[in-house]
Amino acid sequence: MVSDVVSAVKKASIFKHLLGIPAAPILGQNRVEHLEKISKPILQAIGSDVAQGAIHPVREWFNESCPLLYHVKGDNIWDFGEEPCHKLYQKEPNAKKKSNVDSTCPYYYTCPRHQIERDIAEGLVWVLTPESFVHTEVPRSVSLDNIRFAEFVARECEFLFVDEADLMKGRLNSVFAPDANLIASKDSLINQTGIEISKFNDSHRPQTKYKSWEKFAACYNLVELTIPPLYRQLNSNPLLVDWLERITFHSYGIFSRIVQELLDRSGIVDKDSFRAIFNELKLFIDNLWIDEKEVKLPTLLVN
Q: Which residues are within 8 A (CB) of 7 and not within 5 positions of it... i.e. 6 or more apart?
């Protein structure tokens, strides 16, 4: 992980074009802005690796060619980065209305515009920025799951190296809002999230058809239902507050403490039992919103 787009492109280029190691930069969606950022420091730079008049090899990651433009008539063309790659629709010969199902462009998997995505799929090295790590969606040529690179890196990568880790920590902290007020005011994270969800439902109705959005909305609704009793308990039970203050406040930290206390009361102290029950709880959390599976409470909690 590096600090900016130029560094990400340069380092990925060193791996791929100089060392012969499959690699690619992970960038955001604003292709025009990225092209402007790398133009002077990379594309216009003349050095030992790029002779006068030569095309820099990173240009393949910013190819503006779109095969669909050949089929477009009039002024209905689109700018670089605005290609409707996954927003096409099938029109039946005698149909009065277009299909409601978005289709992927037939050129997508060989399109010169998407060379960077093919390199991501085949790459042994990904070079990210903090922003692309958190916000960039994994392209469909890499995974059909609707997830972002932070989760995908956790699933697929063996190592994550961070350049200037102290600076990156501050930037990641600002992205994840560690000091956000959770529930105590009208400007709290929960209230603002509810407002944004309402706005999104009104203005981006087509995106709400995806199952990932359905799961997120269900999680949010559960949180809203859970907040009143939790808030009441936290204000009336000092022992609970003291218990929570001694652990990392997230689901795994809480469940880890619960498992340890249940085992202590049962007289079980071996690590294998802890690991087995904790893994059951982890599976329960991970599968909580997967409709295709029947999610069951871990055996110890049932007993």
A: 127, 129, 163
Cα 10 from Cα 298, distance rounded (Å): 48
CB neighbours of residue 222 within 10 Å: 12
Quote the CA–CA distance of 132 and 120 in Å, as a whole number: 13
Which of 81, 9, 17 has the alpha carbon at shortest distance from 39? 9
User: SS3 of 231, please?
Assistant: helix
| Residue among 184, 177, 128, 188 at smallest CA distance from 152 | 128
Residue 286 pLDDT: 66
* Residue carrying the six token digits 């709400």: 208
Give the separation between CA 49 and CA 44, rounded to whole angstroms: 12
The rounded distance, in Å, linking the Cα atoms of 158 and 154 is: 8
Show contacts of 170-178: CB within 8 Å, 24+ apart. Answer: 171/130, 172/130, 172/133, 172/134, 175/130, 175/131, 175/134, 176/134
Q: What angle do CA 163, 167, 188 make, to 5 degrees?
A: 130
Rounded Cα–Cα distance for residues 67 and 115 (Å): 13
How high does pLDDT run on average in the chain?
78
Nearest to 9 by CA among 47, 32, 54, 41: 41
Q: Examine the pLDDT at 193 and tell me if it is beyond 80.
A: no
Bridge partner residues of 85 (DSSP) = none
CA distances for 194 relative to 40, 103, 202, 232, angstroms: 43, 31, 13, 21
3-state secondary structure of 137: strand
Cα separation, 231 vs 190, in Å, equals: 13
The backbone torsions φ and ψ at residue 220, rounded to the nearest 5 degrees and listed phi first, read -65, -45
- List the structure tokens of 111: 């399109």
The encoded tokens of residue 253 equal 């930290």
Q: Give the model confidence (pLDDT) of 144-180 as tens digits.
A: 887 899 989 988 898 999 998 888 888 887 777 666 6
DSSP reduced 3-state for 282: helix
